[in-house]
Write a structure and sequence with these properties.
With 450 residues, the chain is α/β, with parallel strands linked by helices. It has helices at 3-11, 18-29, 35-48, 52-63, 91-101, 120-125, 136-146, 159-169, 177-191, 211-228, 249-259, 280-296, 303-316, 318-329, 334-340, 365-375, 416-428; strands at 79-83, 106-110, 148-152, 195-202, 231-238, 246-248, 348-353, 358-363, 391-394, 401-402, 407-413, 430-433, 443-448. 45% of the residues lie in helices and 15% in strands. Helix 4 packs across helix 9 and helix 9 packs across helix 10.
């Protein structure tokens, strides 16, 4: 078997066998097949695509390149959630303790910020002492005790994914749907999840800009998941505007803490389930994702029941208790964390105020996300450092009426140069109108396996 024959077959639109795909990935990971041949193959896949069987074979080959989490003996159901990334997307930090409070176990393997999208690990590590580099044994113990554990991808977990992603990043093949699918599902299967809820985002601040492209990815994920024996539900959600009211590492943790406050869910039914002021959109997405996790875990018969169970649990305060317990379990100091709330900010601060009277018609997520890179929230390259105390607080959201001079954003930069560099982009992210903008749904569609 030769790599060039596999490249040629895919270039000409042929279907590759599982053996051919395994040969290519094993040779690439082992250093026997050079980068330039795998780059040529990736470009062929980009243009020719892969069917569900090929994508499943690629996922399995990538999975076989390293170790897997052994979660045997831990009673399930083991259900996780994954997002394709966005600006202010912090749902994982709320969902993990919420799912655990309702009897699920969530083995969550997350990533870091890259480009304009945030990273769960960076947010968690803004809590002093919090460790995301868990050993497999630590991961097992915390998952069994707390109901969820948060860790990063180790060098032994799907090494083929790290190598292939680095190659895709410099060869213009990042957007390939089969390659995205295999990247996501290989990591999720390696972490031990039995079922998975996926938040596939589309819009200005998302990886996929159009809903139609996001739906193609969603269907690739559900079809490949079925071939791998992973039960999957996908929600397509909008990322035209930042999610919630905070963008930044500790700032987003702080917002999640507020969203876990039982007092934010008053009322005897679902009518009070909006969460804190400014976070209604965040909780809309979070509760719908949580409802699907409960469905996959056999705890809810349908989404309405799942949502109600989530709200009832939030009112009980149990998810908040589990959040603090997880901080302690992973090396953080809960008391120090609580003392930092509302005060842990960079000293380099500025305000953005309304330029005119009217309604805020749009806050462009892409522009906010890229300003966040300048502030120190995100990364241009994987080796860049992030600032835990930098970020943006949105005091007003799309649809709000403002007068000239009203405070719209408070901004913190890692230093004065970073702050000054970001302010122009943040001002340009705001759009105004004479009339209220139409309300757009955060959730476009649900997609399940056939």
């Amino acid at each position: 078997m030769r790599a060039v024959d596999i490249i040629t077959a895919k270039r000409d639109g042929g279907e590759l066998s599982g053996e051919e795909i395994a040969f290519l990935i094993k040779g690439f990971t082992g250093g026997e097949i050079p980068d330039y041949q795998v780059a040529a193959w990736a470009m062929a896949v980009f243009f020719r695509g892969m069917n569900a069987a090929e994508t499943a074979a690629l996922t399995e080959a990538m999975l076989d390149s390293g170790g897997r989490m052994d979660l045997s003996g831990i009673p399930g159901p083991l259900v996780d959630k994954h997002s394709t990334g966005g600006v202010g997307d912090k749902t994982s930090l709320i969902l993990a303790p919420l799912a655990a409070s309702l009897g699920l176990r969530d083995p969550m393997m997350s990533g870091r910020a890259l480009g304009h999208t945030g990273g769960t690990l960076d947010k968690l590590e803004s809590i002093p002492g919090y460790r995301t580099g868990l050993s497999p044994q630590e991961f097992r113990e915390i998952l069994a005790r707390d109901g969820f554990a948060m860790t990063g991808q180790t060098k032994d977990t799907v090494p083929a994914d790290r190598l292939l992603y680095a190659l895709r990043d410099v060869t213009g093949t990042v957007e390939s749907i089969p390659l995205i699918t295999a990247s996501i599902l290989s990591k999720k299967k390696a972490e031990g999840a039995e079922a998975l809820v996926l938040d596939v985002k589309y819009g200005a601040g998302a990886f996929m800009k159009e809903g139609a492209e996001a739906e193609k990815l969603a269907r690739s994920l559900t079809n490949t998941g079925a071939a791998l024996g992973i039960r999957i539900i996908v929600l397509l959600t909008s990322m035209e505007e930042p999610l919630g009211r905070m963008v930044g590492n500790f700032l987003e943790v702080e917002e999640c803490w507020a969203c876990l406050d039982p007092a934010a869910y008053g009322g005897a039914d679902d009518s009070g389930a909006q969460g804190p002021a400014g976070s209604a959109d965040l909780m809309e997405v979070t509760l719908e994702l949580g409802a699907r996790m409960l469905m996959l875990g056999g705890k809810a018969a349908h989404s309405a029941q799942g949502r109600l169970l989530c709200v009832e649990s939030l009112r009980s305060g149990k998810p908040r208790e589990l959040f603090l317990q997880n901080i302690k379990s992973q090396g953080g100091d809960p008391e120090r964390f609580l003392a930092m709330l509302g005060t842990y900010r960079s000293p380099h601060r500025a305000e953005i105020r309304a330029e005119r009277e009217g309604y805020i018609s749009r806050i462009d997520a892409w522009k906010v996300g890229h300003a966040g890179i300048s502030l120190g929230v995100g990364r241009n390259r994987s080796g860049d450092t992030v600032s835990p105390a930098a970020g943006i607080e949105l005091h007003r959201k799309s649809g709000d009426r403002v007068k000239a001079g009203d405070l719209i954003m408070t901004v913190w930069g890692k230093d004065k140069t970073a702050l000054d560099a970001a302010l122009g982009g943040l001002g340009a992210a705001l759009e105004y109108a004479e009339t209220p903008p139409p309300r757009t749904a955060r959730i476009l569609k649900e997609i399940r396996q056939d």
